[in-house]
Amino acid sequence: MDGRLKKQKLTYHILWIFAGLLLFSSCQQVTVKVDSIPSNTPKGQPIYVVGNFNNWDPGDNRFQLTLGEDSVYSINLPRGFGKIEYKFTRGDWTTVEKDICGYEIDNRSLRIGQVDSVVEQIESWNDQDPVDCPRLTLMVDNIPEDTPLVDLGHFPGER
Question: How far is it, in rounded angstroms, from Cα 2 to Cα 91?
Fold first, then answer.
């Protein structure tokens, strides 16, 4: 009985080791690339990826992208499962990425196991004026006194 119990324990341990190896080997790794950054990005400043995989630490040196000879930034994210949410910064939250006109953007996301690489573009930075915004805002300082109210956005009967 003693030998049989040892054999069962050994089999149990081998199964757990096999399950662990299977789990580890099935974890996917994703490469994130950035092939375009704003033209006013300060020269020599590092770019980081920040997300739910590093507790949203915007300057975590483990997640600094590497600039390749092809001028593409890249990083391999840790192996794992599930949905990843992320953004790009230049080291802190005051330098987080924004949309092309400088407005807040939603977190980027991907599901590990569905893709093995993703290519992104950064359109503007929080601390820099947007350079390629296709919108123009006109500010009117002075309206002539004889401008009809309907032209000011008022409608007949409103004051």
Answer: 60
